[in-house]
Amino acid sequence: MNTPSNDPCENCGICCLAFSLPPFDANELVKASDALLQQVDAYARSARYRNSNPCLWLDLDSGKCKHYKSRPVLCRWFEPGCQACDNLRVEAGLPRLQGEHVSS
User: Fold this and answer.
1) What's the rounded mean pLDDT across residues 15-40?
2) Strands (E), 6-92
3) Does residue 3 lie within any of the structural domains?
4) By CB distance 3.0 to 4.6 Å, which of 50, 54, 73, 89 could disulfide with 58?
């Protein structure tokens, strides 16, 4: 991915590697637009999804979410620098983020 920037995620996108589809809960799916549901459905039927690649919304060039402001609640709870974030970063050979729950 790109070189680190000033944002707390440092363009890593590691949290997006565990989900091929944005991890919406049932309440979020009910509120989703038809266009979004069609995009997710088409992706779920694609070879990329079957090969368990990163989240549909992860921009592989920037390491950032393409729809950050609309991301699911599960993604919102996963804060840069939290224990889960640091664990995934260490497993991937990346350094831990400085500080606990780095704010963006």
Assistant:
1) 85
2) 58-59, 64-65
3) no
4) 54
CA atoms in the 13 A half-sphere facing the CB of 15: 24
Q: For residue 26, tell me if it sits in a domain.
A: yes
Which pLDDT tens digit goes with each residue over 57-78?
888 888 888 888 888 998 888 8
Q: Are 57 and 43 within 8 A, CB to CB?
A: no
**Which of the four pLDDT bands, split at 50, 70 and 90, describes residue 104?**
very low
Q: Whose structure tokens read 């000033």?
A: 6
Q: How many domains does the chain contain in total?
A: 1
Domain that holds residue 60: 14-91
Cβ pair 72, 22 in contact under 8 A: yes
Domain-located, residue 2: no
